[in-house]
C-alpha cells in the first residue's frame, strides 16, 4: 500500500510541475502575441531593435515578425504536448486513487473480520 501511495504522490508532484510548465507557456504565448500585435501596428518605415545583453541591435522587420510567428507556433505546439501530458498524468492519478481506495477497503474489511466478536 505504501508503494502505491508513494507512486501517487510522485504522480501528483509531476502533475504540479507540469501545470507550472503550462502556466509558463501561457505567459510566453501571451507575451509573444502582444509583441505580434505591436509589430502588426508598425509601418514599414519603423525600426525594430532587439535587446542582446546590454545592447540594442537593429533587426530587420520582416525577420523579427517571422521569428515571433515561429515562436508562437512553437509555444502552441508545446502547449498541446503539455496538455496531453497533463491528461495522461490525470488518468494515471485516477487509476492510482482507485487502487488506493480498493486497498483501503480490503484493509478495513480484513480489520473488521479479525476484530473481536461482540455478543449481544
Automatic annotation (TrEMBL):
Pfam families according to UniProt: Prefoldin_2 (PF01920)
Recorded GO molecular functions are: protein-folding chaperone binding; unfolded protein binding
Report TM segments. none
Q: Kindly give the SUPFAM superfamilies that the UniProt entry links to this protein.
A: Prefoldin
Q: Does the keyword Chaperone apply?
A: yes
Coiled-coil residue windows: 65-113
Q: Which biological process terms from the Gene Ontology are attached to this UniProt entry?
A: chaperone-mediated protein complex assembly; protein folding
Q: Which InterPro entries match?
A: PFD_beta-like, Prefoldin
Its keywords, alphabetically, are: Chaperone, Coiled coil
Keyword check for Repressor: no
Identify its protein family.
Answer: Belongs to the prefoldin subunit beta family.
Instruction: Spell out the protein name for this chain.
Output: Prefoldin subunit 6
Species of the source: Pseudozyma flocculosa PF-1
Amino acid at each position: 500500500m505504501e508503494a502505491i501511495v508513494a507512486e501517487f504522490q510522485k504522480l501528483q508532484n509531476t502533475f504540479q510541475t507540469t501545470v507550472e510548465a503550462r502556466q509558463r507557456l501561457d505567459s510566453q504565448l501571451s507575451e509573444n502575441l502582444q509583441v505580434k500585435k505591436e509589430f502588426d501596428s508598425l509601418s514599414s518605415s519603423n525600426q525594430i531593435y532587439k535587446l542582446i545583453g546590454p545592447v540594442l541591435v537593429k533587426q530587420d522587420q520582416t525577420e523579427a515578425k517571422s521569428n515571433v510567428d515561429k515562436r508562437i507556433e512553437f509555444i502552441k505546439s508545446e502547449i498541446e504536448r503539455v496538455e496531453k501530458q497533463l491528461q495522461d498524468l490525470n488518468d494515471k492519478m485516477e487509476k492510482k486513487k482507485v487502487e488506493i481506495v480498493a486497498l483501503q477497503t480490503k484493509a478495513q474489511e480484513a480489520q473488521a473480520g479479525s476484530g473481536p466478536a461482540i455478543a449481544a
